């Protein structure tokens, strides 16, 4: 359970950090120049395989990460048809077999390329509460 909370917190920090970084002028150029030690490969390697009909915080993080890649997904935490379509398209565009199963290659293409300053990969504070798919409690979401 603690591991799931850590992953959910990391993914939430990833999305919050990515939102903030997107507004910084030149952030794209700065991120492209970083070395591999500054990437979030460690986070990507720790994420579990997810696929159609899966639910939970890892699916929610996947949906939010795909939204930041330009896919029109809501963060439901349920891996259904819309998520499958977005995952397959993302995989195809990134040279990954478009199986719809999010494994190591897909996580690395989606999360691993991001800066650790965006994902919070390492040294994070684990919140003392859980986040459920479709969470609407703004206090919880803002606490991350």
Q: What topology emerges from the helices and strands here?
A:
Layout: H1 2-22, H2 27-32, H3 41-46, H4 57-68, H5 81-93, H6 104-112, H7 116-119, H8 138-143
Helix pairs in contact: 1-4
Describe, in plain words, how this protein is organized in 3D.
The protein is built from 8 helices and no strands. It has helices at residues 2-22, 27-32, 41-46, 57-68, 81-93, 104-112, 116-119, 138-143. The chain has one domain (2-143): Muramoyl-pentapeptide Carboxypeptidase, domain 1. The model is unreliable at 15-36 and 122-127 (pLDDT under 50). The protein has 144 residues and is mainly alpha-helical.
Q: Which structural class best describes the helix and strand composition?
A: mainly alpha
Structurally, how many domains make up the residues?
A: 1
Low-confidence stretches: 15-36, 122-127
- Using the CA coordinates, give the radius of gyration: 14 Å
Biggest sheet architecture: none
Q: So, CATH architecture?
A: Orthogonal Bundle
- CATH-derived topology: Muramoyl-pentapeptide Carboxypeptidase, domain 1
Share of β-strand residues: under 5%
CATH class: Mainly Alpha
